[in-house]
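#lab-general

N.A. 3:47 PM
ok so I finally got the sequence cleaned up, no stray characters, all 126 residues accounted for. can someone with queue access submit it? mine expired

B.Y. 3:52 PM
send it over

N.A. 3:53 PM
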Amino acid sequence: RVGARWLVFGDRPRRADVGSVADQLLRAHPASVGAFQTAISRHDRRAAPARLNGIPGVVLVGTADRLCPPRHARVIAGEWHSGRLVTYPRAGHMLPQERAHEVALHLSALLPRPTPTRTRPSPVPA
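B.Y. 4:20 PM
back already:
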């Protein structure tokens, strides 16, 4: 649990969140973890975000993120011209657990808003 806490969380994670992530890591097949690490290390952080240009988005990063550090998030946001960068002080990689409310607000702001429509009254049968 200490390793999971150090790797993916910031300053003050909840014990239940650390336990949940540690359990997930322990259940992952070692070959899958190795393949994932290899894929992440080969990922082109410049080409992928550029494909999203024109689509609104947000890049969220914690200042204590060891998996996708702020310098990487800045590269992603810099290539994704229609994306914004939001940084969370002292947070790690697990922002949905560490900053759930703020993450939800940023994501919900990306959803299309319904537009009011005018309805015409139904014709009255003669």
